[in-house]
Amino acid sequence: MPVALRSVVALVALTLAGCDAAPGFADEVSRPILAEVAITPAAFSLDGDAPTATVPLAVSGTLDAEGAVEVRVLVRYAETDSLVTEASAEVAGGAFRVEAPVTIPRGATGEYSVRVTTEGADGRAGDQAAAVFRFDAANLGPPVVTANTPSAVTRPTGTRTVTVPLVATVTDPDGRANVLVVVAQVPDGGGVIGRLFDDGENQDQAADDGRYSAGIVVDASFEPGTYALEIVAIDRAGAESAPAPYTFTVQ
Fold first, then answer.
1. Rounded CA gap, 197 and 215, in Å?
2. Could you give the CA distance from residue 194 to residue 213 in angstroms, rounded to a whole number?
3. What b/e sequence results for 3-35 when a residue is b if at least 16 CB atoms lie within 10 Å of its CB, and e otherwise?
4. Per-position pLDDT tens, the chain of length 251
5. What is the pTM of this model?
6. 241: exposed, middle or buried (Cβ count in 10 Å: 0-12, 13-18, 19+)
7. Residue 87: exposed, middle, or buried by beta-carbon count in 10 A (0-12, 13-18, 19+)?
8. For 123, which of 18, 145, 181, 194 is 20 to 30 Å away at the CA?
């Protein structure tokens, strides 16, 4: 079913002195007005095990305007606020439809914002509208985690510290986009102690390569011995991986 978009009026105020029209504009025309705007489909579910879904997204409605109007559609993934696709078309007043098909990895489930903007024949901004599109896919199973085993470190003295790398390779049958969070925890219900990242920062060497990283800071308070943790990945459907054991030794 189509979903109605909320109209957002964008007013452009021009302050002019001794001039009847804004420099650079053609003779002033009426600002484009959107009405009965809807997106189809409002939601899409991917069945089967295909790695991606191609959604035939389209925006339709009516336009009260003079002359040709550029209608632009931008689709963003709400989870990461990243632009997924954009489309534009030059339309006249009356009924219109703009196709904006989008290809989505099966793991990138959730909400997508759809924004529609207009620009009149004289270059001025017109009406805007916005709505939310939802994408879902059947979950193919939980993530799988494999943790590294770092070399032993020597306990530092005084105020010095040493960082032990914690790296875990995470895969997911729905694709990496389905991985929501990767955490380190104390075994046997001891609680989460920190998060691992795949962003090229936070001790991580390369973004989006499936290797999630963190660092354990060892200081003089650590007693010599072997320390055990578990690494767990959770996907967007809430499915958890089996805990992957991780140990490091302080000499």
1. 10
2. 11
3. bebebeeeeeeeeeeeeeeeeeeeeeeebbbbe
4. 454 444 433 333 323 233 444 455 445 668 899 999 999 999 999 988 999 999 999 999 999 988 899 999 999 999 889 999 999 999 998 999 999 999 999 999 999 999 999 999 888 899 999 999 999 999 999 999 999 999 999 999 999 999 999 999 999 999 998 999 999 999 988 899 999 999 998 888 999 999 999 999 999 999 999 999 999 999 998 999 999 999 999 99
5. 0.73
6. buried
7. middle
8. 18
Length of the chain: 251
Q: Which two tokens stand for residue 31?
A: 């600002």
Q: Tell how far CA 229 is from the center of its chain.
A: 30
The C-alpha atoms of residue 74 and residue 83 are separated, in whole angstroms, by 7
Q: What is the token pair recorded at 214? A: 């963190």
Instruction: Check if the beta carbon of residue 168 is closer than 8 Å to that of residue 196.
Output: yes
Query: Which tokens belong to 192?
Result: 């989460």
